[in-house]
Design goal:
heterodimer, A: 151 residues, 0% strand, B: 127 residues, mainly alpha
C-alpha cells in the first residue's frame, strides 16, 4: 500500500513539475510571435491557465507526502542515521520545510494570478518560489528514494 | 471574497512563514517553548499535545504536523489582524512581503539545515 502511494506520489509530482515548468517558462521566457519550434511550444502564452492545475496537484502531492512521512520517519531515517548519511536526512528536512511554507503560499498564489493582474512582479516571484521548491522537492525525493544506490 | 483574498491570504502566508521557520529551527528535545501544537509518534501511532521528546518506548517523535498546525493558527491570527487594518496600508505592503518573507524564511531555515551537509556548521547568527 505504501509503495503504491509512493509511486502515485511520484507520478503526481511529475505532473506538477511539468505544470510549474510550463508556467515559469511562460512567465520568464515567453514565446514570441512566429516561434513554433519544440522549445518555443513549451513556453506557453497563457501561463494563467496552469494555476488551478498547479494548486490541485500541489495539494494532492502534499497530502500523499504527509501520509508517507511516518513510514520514512520509522523505517528510512534511522538506517540513514546509522550509516551517517546526514546529507540525505538534510535533503528531506529542506524538502519538508519548503513544502510546508509553499503550501501556505497557495491561497495568495491563486489570488495574485486570478484576481490581481496589476501585480506582475508578485505573480512572477510566487511562480519562481514554487518553481524552485517543486523542482528541488522532486529531485530530493528521487535521491532519497534511491539513496541505497549511492552508498 | 476579493477583499478577504486581498488582505487575509497574504497575511496568512506571512504569519505562517514567520512562525514556521523559527519553530523548526528552535525545536529540540530540551526546548522550553512548545513550538509544535502536538507531537505524533508514528511507531506507536499516538498523538500528544505540544512538544514531547521521544524515548525508547515511544520511538521517534514527529513535530512536522504540529509545526504546521501551530503555523496555521498564527497565520489565521495575522489574517484576522490584516482584515482590521486600513486597506491603503496593506495594498502597499503585502504584494512585496508576500514573497520576500517566505524567501527570508527559506534563508533562515537553510542557515540551520546546513548542519546536515557541512560538518561542524553552526548557524551564522547564533555561533
Amino acid at each position: 500500500m505504501i509503495t503504491a502511494l509512493l509511486i502515485v506520489h511520484g507520478i503526481f509530482a511529475m505532473f506538477l513539475v511539468g505544470a510549474i515548468t510550463h508556467q515559469a517558462l511562460g512567465v520568464f521566457w515567453p514565446r514570441r510571435p512566429g516561434q513554433a519550434n519544440f522549445v518555443a511550444r513549451m513556453r506557453v502564452a497563457n501561463s494563467q491557465g496552469y494555476v488551478n492545475a498547479i494548486l490541485t496537484l500541489y495539494v494532492a502531492v502534499f497530502v500523499m507526502g504527509s501520509f508517507l512521512y511516518p513510514t520514512y520517519r520509522v523505517f528510512v531515517r534511522p538506517p540513514l542515521q546509522d550509516l551517517q548519511l546526514t546529507y540525505a536526512i538534510g535533503l528531506f528536512e529542506v524538502k519538508e520545510n519548503f513544502a510546508a511554507i509553499c503550501l501556505a503560499l497557495l491561497p495568495s498564489y491563486w489570488y495574485f494570478w486570478k484576481k490581481a493582474p496589476e501585480f506582475p512582479v508578485t505573480r512572477s516571484a510566487l511562480t519562481a518560489i514554487l518553481f524552485v521548491t517543486i523542482w528541488y522537492n522532486f529531485i530530493a525525493g528521487h535521491i532519497l528514494n534511491n539513496v541505497r544506490g549511492f552508498t | 471574497m476579493n477583499k478577504i483574498a486581498a488582505r487575509a491570504f497574504p497575511a496568512f502566508a506571512i504569519g505562517f512563514a514567520l512562525f514556521y521557520a523559527p519553530g523548526y529551527s528552535f525545536t529540540g528535545a530540551t526546548s522550553t517553548v512548545n513550538w509544535p501544537l502536538f507531537t505524533y509518534f508514528p511507531a506507536i501511532n499516538q498523538w500528544r499535545w505540544l512538544l514531547v521528546p521521544g524515548n525508547d518506548n515511544s520511538g521517534p517523535p514527529m513535530w512536522w504536523y504540529g509545526w504546521i498546525a501551530s503555523s496555521v493558527l498564527v497565520g489565521l491570527v495575522f489574517a484576522a489582524i490584516a482584515m482590521l487594518l486600513p486597506e491603503r496600508a496593506l495594498r502597499k505592503i503585502s504584494p512585496t512581503l508576500i514573497w520576500v518573507v517566505p524567501v527570508c524564511a527559506f534563508i533562515f531555515l537553510l542557515n540551520w539545515e546546513l548542519s546536515w551537509f557541512v560538518t561542524g556548521w553552526k548557524p551564522i547568527w547564533f555561533s
